[in-house]
Amino acid sequence: MLLYPPETRVVKTGKRFTRRRRLVLTAAAVVPFLLLSLGTALTKRPWCDEAWFASPALDLVVNGRMGTQLLEPTGSFISVIHPGVTLERIDQRTYWAAPLHFLVLAVWFKLFGFSLTILRLPAMAWGLTALAAWYAIVRRLGGPAGLAIFAVFLAGIDAAFVNSAADGRMDMMCAALGYAALALYLSLRERRFSTAVVAGNFAAALGCVTHPNGVLAAAALLFTMIYLDRNRF
After folding, report:
1. Where are the domains of the chain?
2. According to the 3-state scheme, what is the secondary structure of 122-153?
3. What is the mean pLDDT of residues 32-44?
4. What are phi and psi of 145, to 5 degrees?
5. Cα–Cα dist 187/141, whole Å
6. I need a labelling partner for 75 at 20 to 30 A (CA). Which of 103, 143, 150, 182 fits?
C-alpha cells in the first residue's frame, strides 16, 4: 500500500531530486546526528548500566565466560529491592539480560580494545542503521525523497534518539534491528516475497535476543505483513 500513487512519486523525484542531489541532502541530514551523538558520547557522564552491560562482554574477552563481575551475587541492588533475592553465580554467568549485545561488544572489544568511548561507538553505528532503515521505510510506503530525508533529519536530532546512540547499552541496537526488519520486508515484498518474509523476521528475531522490547518490533512487522499482504500468504 502506497501513500502516494507511484506515478506521482516518480515525477516528483525525477524533477526535484537527481541521484547526486539526493545523496548530498541525505548526507547533510545525517551530519547533525553524527555531531550530536559523538559529542554526547565524548562528554556524557558514565552510569551504572553501561558498566553492568560492558562487564559480560569484557569478561568473555578476558576470561572466556560471560559473568557480570561488577555485581555482588548476595548483595546487589536486587537484594535491596527484593529482600532475600540473590543473583547466584552472576559473576560467572549473565542471565539477567538478552545475550546478543554482549557477543557483539565482545567482538568489538577484541578488535579495538576497551574504553568508555569504544563502548559507546557501536550504538552510534546502530543509530546510522536505524536512520537508513527509516529512509527506506518512508520511501517504500510511497513517500517522496524529500520526505524521507526530512524524516532522517528529525530522527537524527531527537534528544532521546541521540542519547541512546551515545550510550553503552543495547537499546539502539534493538531499535535498529526492529526498524531494519520493517525496512527489509517493505523493500523486498514486491519482487521477492519469500525473501522479504525471511529477512524481515530474521532481523526481528535478532532484536528479540538483544532486548525484550524487540518483541514490539516483531509485533509491528507481523501487523505490517498481515495488513499489506494477508492475501499473498
Report:
1. 6-46+99-169
2. HHHHHHHHHHHHHHHHHHHCCCCHHHHHHHHH
3. 97
4. -60, -40
5. 9
6. 103
CA neighbor of 204 nearest in space, from 214, 195, 212: 214
Which residues sit opposite 93 in a β-bridge? 66
What pLDDT, on the 0 to 100 scale, is given for residue 75?
75
| Grid coordinates belonging to 13 | 523525484
Structure confidence by residue, pLDDT tens digits, 9-37: 433 444 556 888 999 999 999 999 999 99
Q: Are 176 and 127 in contact (CB under 8 A)?
A: yes
Task: Decide: 155 and 130 in contact? Cβ < 8 Å.
Answer: yes
The type of residue at 230 is R
User: How far is 193 from 203, CA to CA, in rounded Å?
Assistant: 16
- Residue found under cell 569484557: 58
Range 164-199 burial, b when 16+ CB lie within 10 A, else e: bbbbbbbbbbbbbbbbbbbbbbbbbbeeeeeebbeb
CA distance 225 to 222: 5
The 3 state secondary structure assigned to 44-102 is CCCCHHHHHHHHHHHHHHHHCCECCCCCCCCCCHHHHHCCCCCCCCCCCECCCCCCHHH
